Amino acid sequence: MALSSLQSQRVLSGMRPTGQLHLGHYHGVLKNWAQLQHEYNCFFFVADWHALTTEYENPQVITESVWDMVIDWLAAGIEPSAATLFIQSKVPEHAELHLLLSMVTPLGWLERVPTYKDQQEKLKEKDLATYGFLGYPLLQSADILIYRATKVPVGEDQVPHVEITREIARRFNHLYGREPGFEELVEAAIKKMGKKNAQLYRELRRRFQEQGDVEALEKARAFLENQQNLTLGDRERLFGYLEGIGKAILPEPQALLTPAARMPGLDGQKMSKSYGNTIALREPPEQVEHKLRTMPTDPARVRRSDPGDPDKCPVWQFHLVYSNEEVKEWVQKGCRTAGIGCLDCKQPIVEAIQSELKPIRERAQEYARHPEEVQRIINEGNEVAREVARETMEEVRQAMGLSYR
How does pLDDT run across 379-402, given as a tens digit for each residue? Predict the structure, then answer.
């Protein structure tokens, strides 16, 4: 079955296995994945090597979390028939590309990644003065480039990671993309498009090369994506020729900005294990209810008759996620006039979260009863991912002169 132009674009995203997944992961990542899997060719991976960059002293946490996390993915609606699910360390080509890219990546590029110093500040209790931690953005780049992903779903704060990947791909292509007879191969590829399409391609390239017309560049890229009679090699040559860099062995990915989904924790801060304010996806219903009924509220409401301010109450943050306009209006009026008590206010949230978690919990229990099925899904995903990674590495080795006979 022919893929649409969107489905032919590959999306790559991963998650570190460092413990049970909670509602923050569900609203921040998994709901988005569940939508993307039907719009793009998606590769979702367990980033166990990435987890080692901060958990190298406690690797058993990673081992214990891998399969639980995959079960949570499946329970949350990630479908193995719609996306490729795999484990990073089961595709050793990630490590090989990381090593080869490290040979050409300037040290300063890694040191200026914003999260490098931010994470060191936030995780002062850990010794992060390691090569692995400095190099984790490059490993992320290898993750993306090994699958030639065209889109990487990220929040605004993670865009620099995609930008450094684009810079690394550009540098690699500049160094190694000039294959023998490149110009002749480009001309042959242009002719394959037909006279009218060839004329349009040349005009768009001229506008970008001579006038710096970025819009013309984007139009040319989209135009090439839709050319059905080009081989992958021809398409990559024409992408490179657009920018004057030779064959695009490693295509530059684009950031796919995802809607900001800030799931509040039980204390009003962002939901995070480090704050101890989470609700796990598979948490028992009675425990979920207890946590929600005992979560803090507006400190000004000492007695039931005291009016409160929803904007100062953590429960209101949950209403912003789960409640419709009618319920939110009821909360605002009832709280400010002491017309409702805090337990009354919490009840719609209890019901909404229990309703959301019930099917997830049931699907998770089913997968947990059949671990061999989960293993089969991942094994198949590992094979698909490795086949794609092998193809990329073959071209990379050849371009770098490492394809010895």
Answer: 999 999 999 999 999 999 999 999
